[in-house]
# Entry
Amino acid sequence: MKISRRKINREQNGRLEINIIDNWVKENGDPAIERLVKKNLAIANKIASLLESKGMKPADLAVAMGKQRSEVSKWLSGQHTFTTKTITKIEEKLGEDIIHIEPNVRNVYFTAYVRVEDIKPAIQEDIFEDSLYEEVSV
Amino acid sequence: MEKKTIIAEKIHLVRILPSKEYFDHQYALADKELKLSIAQSTKHNSEKKSFKISLSVFLEYEGQKIADYLYDFVFQVENLDEYVLKKDEKPLFSGLLISTLLTIAYSTLRGILHTKLADTPLKDFILPVISPNELLKSKINT
# Structure
């Protein structure tokens, strides 16, 4: 089959344009936007899996939220940037958290003393007597 | 006076003393069913507000001693007096306190033996979880 030179040139130019766009995105793309897109997609996936686990359809969520089906479809496509208000309302309707904020870790602090050797003989020399105790009901 | 609750911060495990550590390496133990015996003795020193819980772990196979461990766990209980139910000739201690100390000692021993047996044919052996009540029934013959 004979392919015209014009067609080959057009395809090569097309590839060149894609490469130029890719390179531009790599060099000038905003990492924050990339992160936002990933987060939106993750939230959409989480909502979809929560709906599935509860045996609900997107239409059911739309009814529960008083929204149009098309809006919920957009949410689930991952193209929507959610506000915390919307997320909270969805969480309220689904009865589960979509986003978990890590709680503050409360540490318990102790002061540890390494016991010096003179304690050991004292304990070893201590006289212990058999203990009597009430019956345990565990 | 009976003390209903345990204040963990007032209990101190102050010493762990190995009294006996025996393991017979000559037996091939793979797929063998071993007999495990666990026993305890609980002693106290009222003046020093301390308890000594001794735990014995004995493993045998067809009458042959495979392993024999005896560990003493010495506790100090700051508020010991609050756990004395009766004070006749000998004090009667709250079962809750004794079972708490025993549980701490036994769990600690589980970790010790897991490490001790790591280089033996029983490297995956873990002391079973048992009720302190059952453990209290099994006393070391002294």
